[in-house]
Automatic annotation (TrEMBL):
Cofactor: how bound: Binds 1 zinc ion per subunit.
Keyword hit for Transit peptide: no
Cofactor: Zn(2+)
GO cellular component terms given for this protein: cytosol
Keywords in alphabetical order: Metal-binding, Methyltransferase, Transferase, Zinc
Biological role: Involved in the regulation of homocysteine metabolism.
Pathway entry: Amino-acid biosynthesis; L-methionine biosynthesis via de novo pathway; L-methionine from L-homocysteine (BhmT route): step 1/1
One Pfam entry name: S-methyl_trans
Domain Hcy-binding, first and last residues per copy: 4-305
InterPro entries from the UniProt entry: BHMT (IPR051524), BHMT-like (IPR017226), HCY_dom (IPR003726), HCY_dom_sf (IPR036589)
An example molecular function term from Gene Ontology annotations: zinc ion binding
Protein name: Betaine--homocysteine S-methyltransferase 1-like
Subunit comment: Homotetramer.
Originating organism: Salarias fasciatus (Jewelled blenny)
Length: 363
């Protein structure tokens, strides 16, 4: 698959495994400032970003996304975090790094743009598009395989992003961070998908904000909308790596635990097996993760779909399918846990007797 582009792979019915989350993972490792979530680490600590790219690649990722989330000049200025590094410098370093690592394993590079503070502050279409255009111009100087318009709460702004990125002459994927109820303006997922495809998106789907099975449910609604409209597009999903049974419109950002106490909500590798299978059965072929997805979660996608893909990722040399390694454990009760039956049916305890299983979201 080394020289095949994203659409060639998807047109052939191949499973494309996405990578995982960057800003939240790097915040926990000490390289990103929470609240700002800007990617200056691409310039300040390239070794940290490169290592995470490599771990996702080793776990089976077919796509490495540039570490350019929230890299628009207005967002960087707003954060006040970055005074001596420009958006162009970050884009430049992030693109080179993603390409370098992707080439180590025949992966593709996706250059991403995300929602802007300007749109939220009622910026005009031409001003918002100018921000995307600036990022596109940076990407076009680099060796990028396709573009991603991701993490948009309003389909209108995502459509503007798609329209701009489409002028770059490469495939465009678009993912909204919305609930099954629709975007922030109440536009249902099916209609969102139709608008994105009409704007020129080749791949549409959902990323972040809510847990894997919820995101799959929303993509199914997008698929229905496209089918009703007689439109065709590939489907993708890159969900949140935390359980969000509240299924609220604001997603995990509105939960009381965001962003510093989400640990008890982390999904297990076995949850990911279930998610990957559900996504595949729903007809989704680009399957990855967003915030909260660590390399071992991406490996779980690769392992669940190993038969469909025809191979296991390098990281599986240090992991046996469905915990078979435990067969050799000296303690009989641990040895008894070797096998799918045990892990698939386990109800993990949180270890917090006084804690509720759900919270009341702010939004």
């Amino acid at each position: 698959t080394e020289n095949k582009g994203i659409l060639e792979r998807l047109d052939a019915g191949e499973v494309v495994v996405g990578d995982g989350g960057y800003v939240m993972q790097l915040e926990r490792r000490g390289y990103v400032k929470a609240g700002h979530w800007t990617p200056e680490a691409a310039v300040e600590h390239p070794e940290a970003v490169r290592q995470l790219h490599r771990e996702f690649l080793r776990a089976g990722a077919d796509v490495i996304q540039t570490f350019t989330f929230y890299c628009s000049e207005d967002k960087l200025e707003l954060s006040g975090n970055v005074t001596d590094i420009s958006g162009a410098q970050i884009n430049d370093a992030a693109c080179d790094m993603a390409r370098e690592v992707a080439d180590e394993g025949g992966a593709l590079v996706a250059g991403g743009v995300s929602q802007t503070p300007l749109y939220a502050n009622k910026g005009s279409e031409s001003d918002v598009k100018a921000i995307f255009k600036k990022q596109l111009d940076d990407f076009l100087k680099k060796d990028i395989d396709f573009f991603m318009v991701e993490y948009f709460e309003y389909v209108e702004e995502a459509v503007w992003g798609v329209e701009v990125m489409k002028t770059g002459g490469k495939p465009v994927g678009a993912t909204l961070c919305i609930s099954p109820d629709g975007d922030r303006s109440g536009v249902p997922p099916g209609e969102c998908a139709v608008r994105l495809v009409k704007a020129g998106a080749d791949i549409v789907g959902i990323n972040c904000h809510l847990d894997p099975l919820t995101c799959v449910r929303t993509v199914k609604l997008m698929k229905e909308g496209l089918e009703k409209a007689g439109l065709k597009a590939h489907l993708m999903v890159q969900p949140l790596g935390f359980h969000t049974p509240e299924c609220n419109i604001g997603g995990y950002v509105s939960l009381p635990e965001f962003p510093f106490a989400l640990e008890t909500r982390i999904i297990t590798r076995w949850d990911v097996h279930k998610y990957a299978r559900e996504a595949y059965n729903a007809g989704i072929r680009y399957i990855g993760g967003c915030c909260g997805f660590e390399p071992y979660h991406i490996r779980a996608i690769s392992e669940e779909l190993a038969e469909e893909r025809g191979f296991l990722p390098p990281a599986s040399t240090k992991h046996s399918l469905w915990a078979a390694t435990l067969e050799t454990h000296t303690k009989p009760w641990v040895k008894a846990r070797a096998g799918r039956q045990y892990w698939e049916n386990l109800l993990p305890a949180s270890g917090r007797p006084k804690c509720p299983s759900m919270a009341t979201p702010a939004d």
